[in-house]
DNA sequence: TCAAGCTCAAAAGTAATACTTATTCAAGAA
DNA sequence: TTCTTGAATAAGTATTACTTTTGAGCTTGA
């Protein structure tokens, strides 16, 4: 996707909208954008087109490009997620994504238990073991890496592309959580045990067991975050 | 969004990709697209740009526009969902969406119980009553309407934009289910009772109750679909 | 023979310009 | 006051020209 100007302009404009610097209802004119970014009409138009397909704006003749209400945005677009995570909306986005995760991952575990390939089941168990080891060794960074790999693999193994697509999102949440001090100093033994339990349940095709164990994981994560948020109030 | 040519070309091309008529790896050249659709370079370029942001294609200089692997598609894009539901991928898409729904809606119910406005709680109870009435009267079409409204309201009331955005998806699934004979002739009494239970739990802020009752609903839906699918095998 | 590097051409990216269409706003007539 | 009409405006569409990247084939030298 080697285009330069396009990507550049899109990033700036999109981020501005995603973080509310351009409030809903604000009107832009395309020639004004050309001037502001020193880009050609072609580039300006295509950027607007893209924003439009993401639901961030609508274009009306004789009026201009209107910033849409957040309710109409495509909140699952990877770009929009990134803009929010990188901007002032970070805290809210992280909360939103965590909630989504808490709903999706138990289901994903269930379907993974139903449909994962033998190879995937094996790798999942292996990752479970690695998590135990690195947790014991208190190697937080590699623990995080394996944690992300574990959830990624599980979502992919669910055989549902909509679940699989959320793996990048989950990775962001997990990484953002540790980098924001919303995580205990060392991995909780129970959480690790639950990961191993999920892997084992998936391995033997125990759908209810996998779903239940995964629910334990996300519930715990939810509690941790709630606790962390209430202690350092509004931890932006 | 009054553009004509653009939308038209996008729809045809996007649908072709979404339904596998243009296999991953297939290469298009933009001047070839211009010719094929009788559109200008501008339109062709913008269409390609949009497809690119949806993850359906990537463009490489000196090569052309390459159809991407489905794994890279943005499966939450409303357009893509529509193309799949309207095309040969309908059955698979419906399954995928139903699974997503089964994960998300119980969580949404939980957060709705936590955060719904008084007005929303009231409307939810009202919709519950309506569902009972129309079920008793065996008025299937208005029952469907209220059912959709119920789930839509609940997802919106969850206060999570990513949940709220799925309301259109849920509506498609519910509508598609009835129009495809994947639904019993008349609403099941238990399902109706569960809807009422969800509304009541949300009303009094019973998070666990709301989540649990909603899980009952989606589990039942899952079983119905599984049964229907296994009876008329591969019901495309 | 083979690998490194060069040249060329193909196709996307960018720019500029002219023309078309729809829509708002306002002026003027009923 | 309200409806009609028309002009102004900004997006939509089309065309053309120029730039940049890059894959492929060719040349050259080890």
Order of helices and strands of chain A: HEHHEEHHHHHHHH
Report the sheet with the most strands of chain A, covering strand number, pairing sense and barrel closure.
3 strands, antiparallel
Rg estimate of chain A, integer Å: 21 Å
**Greatest interface and its residue counts?**
A-B, 43 and 43 residues
Count of helix runs of chain A: 11
Question: What would you say this structure looks like, in words?
Answer:
2 copies of one chain form a homodimer. Chain A is 69% helix and 4% strand. The radius of gyration of chain A is 21 Å and the shape is elongated. With 236 residues, chain A is mainly alpha-helical. The model of chain A has no long low-confidence stretch (mean pLDDT 92). The first copy, chain A, has a 3-stranded antiparallel beta sheet with strand order 1-3-2. Chain A binds chain B through residues 1-3, 6, 42, 45-46, 49-50, 52-54, 58-61, 70-71, 73-79, 96-97, 99-100, 102-108, 111, 160-165, and chain B through 1-3, 6, 42, 45-46, 49-50, 52-54, 58-61, 70-71, 73-79, 96-97, 99-100, 102-108, 111, 160-165. Chain A binds a DNA duplex (30 and 30 nucleotides) through residues 2-6, 29-31, 39-43, 45, 48, 59-65.
Which keywords apply here?
homodimer, 236 residues, mainly alpha, 3 strands, 69% helix, 4% strand, elongated, DNA-binding
